[in-house]
Design brief:
single chain; about 500 residues; six-stranded mixed sheet; five-stranded mixed sheet; 11 helices
Length: about 500
């Protein structure tokens, strides 16, 4: 593999960071180096660099030791700072697609000029009530036809902070992509899922990612936190519920190719056994996802980098959230370079202008002007006025600084959500006639509100979750899955919500 063809991918997964060096050619993904970068605990959390100094130190050390390229690096991130969803839009150029995505994301409170967007073409949009066509059969891409896209958005400030952290370490990013884009690009390289319909279950600690694949093509994705103890029947029940949810989604599409197999990745033997037993009750076969001959990872396994290794197969600017920012920076650099080249000419013109003016002006007129200016500058009244003006400027600057500090403090306070009793009423009202709600805890630092809902059926709980999402006071709503209390016949679900800044105001 030539050095020029290799790509470098930095993977952020929770609080872990790894670097993959390789490429995707000839129907294979090859990882020549898998580097695990060590940082102090809490240095990187949920896709955010919380300690820039320690982060830069770790990145510099890894780059120096492994002689990694310092430009064009791909950053693959997960976490709730990036919003990803599947949507349908007419086929259009890059600029028009960005404009449509900005409008499309308005329903998630993520659209606007302070956000950046990335997308991946998943193929022609399927008619309502039908399954998606096979990726192998996709050929026609007529202008204006409806396309299915995987779209992502993030705040521009968040992406710029990531780029700046790497820049301080001497590394220049070429793109920033959501890890789900990377995972989807990996799917065609997995031999076990190239045909038919199946479900992938990837477990990373307590986070369970579930992917529905039909005819080798991505169909749907869910991510949830498992609350049950590992290796217990209830743990297996939570895993089986995520499978059941995707089966229900597939049945809504009226697909004739129902999923028959579930492949697990990252499960311990105990977790796999209890999960396979519960999934078997749904009529599906369960097995461990094996290594694929089309994915070669030196010094590691597909289990370690399932969410990110597919970034090596991403096309140019595919899903790139950093493209717009990098393009703007490049335009500014070209403009500055042009002005720098023009500066000597401007200086030369200025010099000739001064010389010409000096030759034309008479010495007498200049002397008279100098005398008048000196008289004005040394006049006692004028000197006193100047001193008074300078004192005013100093006082004004001090007042403006105090006003700016007070304004900044007020904005910071106003940006925090307020867990007031009105919020309890909104949450409880959302469940009236549907479920009973019991609020458990509120974390003021993160804005996270946790509570338990109980009801007479999973469908009723779904209505409650949808009602919560429609209240407009939450940035996101996640839930663990349903538990049946056999003694009462009642279902319950643990719900975790992050309040928006406007909540309680």
């Amino acid at each position: 593999m030539s050095a020029s063809s290799m790509k470098t991918v930095v993977a952020f997964t929770g609080n872990k960071v790894s670097v993959l060096c390789g490429d995707a050619r000839g129907g294979k993904i090859r990882v020549e180096k898998l580097i695990r970068v060590s940082f102090p605990i809490g240095c990187v959390m949920n896709g955010v660099v919380t300690d820039t100094e320690a982060f830069c130190e770790g990145i510099r050390a890894a780059w120096k030791e492994n002689r990694l390229p310092k430009s064009g690096v791909i950053l693959s991130v997960d976490g709730n700072h990036v919003t990803v969803k599947k949507t349908q839009l007419p086929r259009a150029n890059r600029k028009r697609t960005g404009e449509m995505l900005a409008y499309d994301f308005q329903d998630t409170n993520a659209g606007g000029p302070d956000w950046v967007y990335g997308s991946m073409d998943l193929g022609p949009a399927a008619p309502q009530g039908t399954a998606l066509p096979s990726a192998a059969g996709e050929k026609d891409k007529a202008p204006g036809e409806e396309r299915e896209l995987l779209a992502a958005t993030a705040e521009k400030a968040y992406v710029m902070e990531l780029a700046e952290a790497f820049a301080q370490a001497g590394v220049k990013l070429g793109s920033v992509v959501a890890s789900r884009f990377s995972m989807i690009r990996l799917l065609p390289y997995l031999e076990e899922i190239k045909s038919g319909s199946c479900i992938l279950e990837s477990l990373d600690g307590e986070v369970l990612s579930t992917v529905l694949v039909e005819n080798g093509k991505y169909l749907n994705f869910t991510s949830s936190r498992v609350f049950s103890d590992h290796g217990t029947p209830s743990f297996g029940g939570e895993v089986a519920r995520t499978v059941s949810q995707l089966l229900q989604f597939q049945s809504m599409l009226k697909s004739e190719n129902r999923a028959t197999d579930v492949y697990c990745l990252g499960f311990s033997k105990e977790d796999f056994d209890v999960s396979a037993e519960q999934i078997g009750l749904l009529g599906l076969n369960t097995s461990v996802l094996g290594e694929s001959p089309s994915v070669v990872i030196h010094g590691g396994s597909i289990r370690e980098c399932f969410d990110h290794v597919g970034a090596l197969a991403l096309g140019k600017d595919e899903g790139n959230l950093y493209r717009e920012i990098a393009s703007s920076d490049e335009r500014n650099k070209k403009r500055d370079a042009f002005l720098l080249k023009l500066l000597p000419l401007l200086l030369l013109v200025a010099v000739f202008t001064v010389i010409s003016s000096s030759m034309i002006a008479g010495n007498t007129a200049k002397e008279r002007k100098v005398e008048e200016l000196n008289a004005y500058l040394t006049n006692a009244d004028n000197v006193a006025k100047e001193q008074a003006y300078n004192d005013y400027l100093a006082g004004s600057a001090k007042f403006n600084a105090m006003l700016a500090a007070a304004t900044q403090m007020k904005e910071a306070i106003d940006s925090y959500p307020r867990a007031v009793s009105a919020l309890d009423s909104i949450i409880i009202n959302a469940g009236v006639g549907i479920v009973d709600v019991s609020i458990q805890s509120f974390d003021a630092a993160s804005g996270q509100l946790s509570f338990t809902a109980t009801g007479q059926g999973a469908e009723r709980l779904n209505e409650f979750v949808e009602a919560l999402q429609n209240t407009g006071i939450f940035l996101n709503v996640t839930y663990s899955g349903y538990n049946l209390i056999e003694s009462t016949g009642i279902y319950n679900v643990n719900v975790s919500c992050v309040l928006s800044a406007a909540a309680g105001r």
